[in-house]
Amino acid sequence: MADGDTTLLAERPEAGEAPPSGLVDGLKAFAAGHEGAKAIIEYVGRRGARIVLVGGDGAWGDQFAPGTDVARQACATAGVPVENSWEQELILQMRPSNDLWRSMARRTLAR
Q: Which is the most buried residue in 20, 47, 56, 70, by most CB within 10 A?
């Protein structure tokens, strides 16, 4: 990204403002479809934060927020508990799909 280029940056809500409704809706939908969903929030620099969701059934997905504070607020609003770090039990719970394994293999072989 070039200096001063903000096309990839999302608008951050003002303090006290609700997180983006689309983000909250996405978190709620994942949690409703995958009982016992938990979230890990990862800082990804100027782009904001990645919310990695892990369901009780091993399914996982992610959402992006404009910042870690917005991500935490969105998770709280959606009722999804946030883990402080990647614990071994949470990692072992994840079950990548066959499609994901194939796409990762293609990326490795393409190098």
A: 70
**SS3 of 51, please?**
strand
Cβ-proximal residues to 50 (8 Å cutoff; 6+ apart), any chain = 41, 42, 44, 62, 63, 64
d(CA 85, CA 44): 15
Instruction: For residues 86 and 39, give the distance between their C-alpha atoms in angstroms, rounded to a whole number.
Output: 10
- Half-sphere exposure (Cβ direction) of 86: Cα atoms closer than 13 Å: 8
pTM: 0.67
Inter-CA distances, 102 with 59, 73, 98, Å: 17, 34, 6
Residue-range domain boundaries for the chain: 21-109
Given a cut of 80, whether residue 99 has pLDDT beyond it is: no
SS3 (DSSP) at 102 = helix
